[in-house]
């Protein structure tokens, strides 16, 4: 398996990023691609997971090994595929997910797209008590990098991109429309809009 890819961010869209390494562009699916926009044309290290099936060969990338490890644990749960795993991690709050599993909080888990009661129950049965090694102190802040964010030229463009990213993650248009008015009240980057929207959708 490819442990990580170190290279420059060449392209970012709502579904994936492209990392250029020695003249080769690697298409990598990530939980929130716009996290990497601020690093465009900079050297980054992406920790990868290679997913192989009869009909697909895909790379999934993460900012940390812990994030990747949680993704891989989620894939072991019946009913959760790569898309579902990315949607869960996109909130940027893995500790919240772990707490929900430990507390058997099905109501929280079913708020993620594609996660029904049966899958939420399976997550609890399969993972409860097995995630402590992935939750060191301070994990709540694992994915926050507000101090490095660069403001977008226009918030409307950033919001449009955030909406597209939410759709890619599996959220329904009717769910997204409910939170748009509140999001319009703030001027943020695409990444911030996605984080804010996910916090609202998971309430």
Automatic annotation (TrEMBL):
SMART domains: HhH1 (SM00278)
Domain of life: Bacteria
One family name in Pfam for this protein: RuvA_N
GO molecular function: DNA helicase activity; hydrolase activity
Chain residue ranges for the region called Domain III: 154-203
Residue span, Helix-hairpin-helix DNA-binding motif class domain: 72-91, 107-126
Keywords per UniProt: Cytoplasm, DNA damage, DNA recombination, DNA repair, DNA-binding, Hydrolase
Subcellular compartments: Cytoplasm
Subunit: Homotetramer. Forms an RuvA(8)-RuvB(12)-Holliday junction (HJ) complex. HJ DNA is sandwiched between 2 RuvA tetramers; dsDNA enters through RuvA and exits via RuvB. An RuvB hexamer assembles on each DNA strand where it exits the tetramer. Each RuvB hexamer is contacted by two RuvA subunits (via domain III) on 2 adjacent RuvB subunits; this complex drives branch migration. In the full resolvosome a probable DNA-RuvA(4)-RuvB(12)-RuvC(2) complex forms which resolves the HJ.
Domain notes from UniProt: Has three domains with a flexible linker between the domains II and III and assumes an 'L' shape. Domain III is highly mobile and contacts RuvB.
Annotated family: Belongs to the RuvA family.
Function: The RuvA-RuvB-RuvC complex processes Holliday junction (HJ) DNA during genetic recombination and DNA repair, while the RuvA-RuvB complex plays an important role in the rescue of blocked DNA replication forks via replication fork reversal (RFR). RuvA specifically binds to HJ cruciform DNA, conferring on it an open structure. The RuvB hexamer acts as an ATP-dependent pump, pulling dsDNA into and through the RuvAB complex. HJ branch migration allows RuvC to scan DNA until it finds its consensus sequence, where it cleaves and resolves the cruciform DNA.
Official protein name in the record: Holliday junction branch migration complex subunit RuvA
Organism: Litchfieldia luteola
Classification lineage: Bacteria, Bacillati, Bacillota, Bacilli, Bacillales
Gene designation: ruvA
